[in-house]
Each structure stands twice: as structure tokens, then as C-alpha cells.
Amino acid sequence: MHASDHAAMGTEASDPRPLVQIRDLTKTYERGKERIEVLHHINLDIAHGDFVALMGPSGSGKTTLLNLIGGLDSPTDGDLRVDGVAIDDLDGDALAAWRADTVGFIFQSYNLMPVLTAQKNVELPLLLTDMGAAERAHRAGIALQLVGLGDRARHKPNELSGGQQQRVAIARALVSDPLLLICDEPTGDLDRRTADEVLTLLQQLNRDFGKTIVMVTHDPKAAEYAKHTVHLDKGTLVAEPLDGAH
Q1: Multiple choice CATH, 3-238, 3.40.50.300, 3.50.50.60, 3.40.50.2300, 3.10.180.10
Q2: What is the pTM (predicted TM-score) of this model?
Q3: Where in the numbering of this chain does the ABC transporter domain appear (predicted)?
């Protein structure tokens, strides 16, 4: 990573306020006549520049909480703010614009377009902006260099390994220079060695570029790359994992 890359992607300035502020948050789903409360009165602050791992057993609510922080779902009750913005107050178009500007998403399954090159996949989020083609290509090129794939820009996903495809997905998440990276089991489909390479990359993005990262993982070894670990059990924050469950 080079100084010019820092200038292009930006190193987040320190801010005394938490980037993510969650107060008394509850999430309930209705299934027929049944009401299922998935998250119960969650209170959580995530600082600018933090790297947080969300862990818990299956069904503990960790992916639901991640989706709420990323603006992919709305809380039933309580207050959730990211960079001072109450996400629940945004309507459809404003919410989409906020997500595109503020959050980069990284999923377990990569979600790359198979007919597009790595370069064009990384450019996709920028198509939602008024950025010109030359600037889109330039920014996508920088993002691919940051993840170590500058020489794979013209390759399509089926010409890349699983670890390389996830790096392309990380570059796509980075290209709009978001404040927050949301990662849902980003190494779930990768072998240990490749997973460690991807996690080291996320750690570098956090350390060198000040990117705030919230990552759901079931893997205790993956959580070791984070600065802090938050445990959920049955929709409630707990101090430690219960019965060794992850």
C-alpha cells in the first residue's frame, strides 16, 4: 500500500463520537399470528476506526444486527445512528443513496457478476454516481491494487480462485471509500490459509486506512483479527460466549 493510495481512498479522521450508536434496539418479525423478537433491547457503540467481530450461535441475531447497522433492514423499536444519521428516518431513495455513500458490503458468497471482469465488477457501485468512466476506471484500479489484484483486472470471476474473488469483492466494497465495511461471514467459503490472507487484508484496511469494520463470523480464529468481539445469544448481548458456542 502506497501513500498515493492513502490519498485516493482516504484515511478516516479521528472523531470522538461513536460511528455507530445503538440504543434500546429491538427487532421483531411477524410470522403469521406469531411475533418473534430476534433482538432484545440492544445497546452498543462502535467507535470510528474499530474492528468488531459479532459472534454467537446460529439464530442469535448477529446477522440481523449486521443488516440493521448496514441499513438493509429497519428496527422495530429503539434508535440506531451511523455517523449521526438516524437510518430509520430515511425513505427508499435517500436510504439507497446513504448506503451507497457510507457502507461497503462484503458477503460470504462474493456476489460477483460472472460476465464482467474484475475491473468492471469493482466499478459497479460507482455506476450509481455521476462519476465519469475514466474516473470510475481509475478508482477501481486503485482498489484492485490495494487488495493485491492489480494484475488481475481483466480476469473474469471463473478465472480467479475463491480467495481472489473475495478480494475483488473487498475492492468493490472499498471503491466508493465508505465509512463502514459490513462483512457477513467473509471467509466462510475459504480454506484456513486463504481465510487468514483475507482477514489479514481486512486488518490492514482497518489499521492503515482507519476503516471501521463490523464482521459477523462463527470462526473464533477469524475473530482474533478484530480489535473487539461482541457476543450475542438469543438476541441479547452477553459478556462471554455461553457453553463455548460461537
Answers
A1: 3.40.50.300
A2: 0.89
A3: 20-246
